[in-house]
Amino acid sequence: MITTVTTTTTTIVVMLQQAMVVAAFGVVALIASLVAKELLSSTQGKTRASSLAHRLRMAILPLFFVFTMVLAMKIWEVI
User: Fold this and answer.
1) How far from chain centre, in Å, is Cα 68?
2) Phi and psi at residue 46, in whole multiples of 5°?
3) How far apart, in Å, are the Cα atoms of 63 and each of 4, 39, 50, 79?
4) Which helix (H) or strand (E) holds 12?
């Protein structure tokens, strides 16, 4: 009985730590994508840069959704 509880607790702690690492990578990827989009959208007259800036929006939207979910879960933990 004690072994099962200990194993389950250890598994849950490891999964939560892995989730936090993945969330941190997601936030870093979102920030990097937003910076790249701003830099690429500031170049005017270059069609490749503006096209890439437009395509980065496809990557930013799911990352923003993940960021809002992580933020909501952190707020939920505090409440």
Assistant:
1) 9
2) -100, 115
3) 36, 18, 20, 24
4) helix 2-42
Least Cα distance to 37 among 22, 24, 54 occurs for 54
* Residue 40 contacts residue 49 (beta carbons within 8 Å): yes
Distance spanning both ends of the chain, measured CA to CA: 32
Residue 29: HSE in the Cβ half-sphere, 13 Å Cα cutoff:
18
| Angle between helix 2-42 and 47-78 (nearest 10) | 150
Tell me the pLDDT tens digit for each residue of 15-62: 777 778 888 888 898 899 999 888 888 877 777 877 888 888 888 888
**Residue 69: what residue type?**
M
d(CA 16, CA 19): 5
Residue 69 has pLDDT above 80, yes or no: yes
